[in-house]
């Protein structure tokens, strides 16, 4: 894996802060991998904070194009129902044959133990911690460097 797409909600300050912390950790643990984080290339929050218009067509195209360039996806599955954008990104990646590792730190039970069956069954594995996700991603990263 040369490029890892980080799929997850990014609409609250808490979500963006958590994503930033996860991204920093992933970049430290998997330095050979280029991490693609939508909140870093889709400036929705910045545009709305500045009172500017949000170009949703450009956001869609950018996320889709980054997904097409990704060799794997790390998908955050937290919440009573996983984020709809994350669910779409997972479906798109799965249809393209891109491996997906799920991350669900939310301890509440879900439909298929960890998430909706369509999401959980799209993943190679679903991890309960970022440490577990890094462990699951390492073989994918190593395969690209051989």
What report would you give on this structure?
The chain is an alpha/beta fold and 146 residues long. It is 51% helix and 14% strand. It has helices at residues 13-29, 38-41, 44-49, 56-69, 84-96, 117-120, 130-145; strands at 3-7, 34-36, 72-76, 100-103, 125-127. The protein has a 5-stranded parallel β-sheet with strand order 2-1-3-4-5, with helices on both faces. Helix 4 packs parallel to helix 5. It is globular and about 40 Å long.
End-to-end separation in angstroms reads: 10 Å
List the secondary-structure elements in sequence, H or E: EHEHHHEHEHEH
**Helix share of residues?**
40-55%
Mean pLDDT: 90
Strand proportion, as a percent range, falls in 5-15%
Strand order of the largest sheet: 2-1-3-4-5
The number of distinct β-strands equals: 5
Q: What's the helix count?
A: 7
| Major beta-sheet overview | 5 strands, parallel
Low-confidence stretches: none
Return the structural class: alpha/beta
Radius of gyration: 15 Å
Shape annotation: globular
């Amino acid at each position: 894996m040369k490029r890892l797409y980080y799929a997850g909600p990014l609409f609250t300050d808490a979500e963006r802060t958590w994503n930033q912390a996860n991204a920093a950790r992933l970049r430290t643990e998997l330095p050979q991998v280029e991490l693609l984080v939508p909140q870093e290339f889709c400036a929705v929050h910045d545009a709305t904070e500045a009172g500017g218009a949000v170009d949703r067509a450009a956001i869609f195209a950018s996320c889709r194009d980054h997904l097409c360039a990704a060799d794997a996806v790390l998908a955050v599955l937290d919440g009573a129902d996983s984020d709809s954008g994350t669910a779409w990104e997972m479906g798109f990646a799965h249809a393209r044959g891109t491996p997906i590792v799920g991350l669900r730190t939310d301890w509440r039970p879900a439909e298929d133990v960890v998430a909706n069956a369509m999401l959980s069954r799209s993943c190679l594995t679903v991890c309960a911690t970022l440490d577990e996700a890094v462990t699951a991603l390492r073989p994918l990263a190593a395969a690209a460097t051989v």
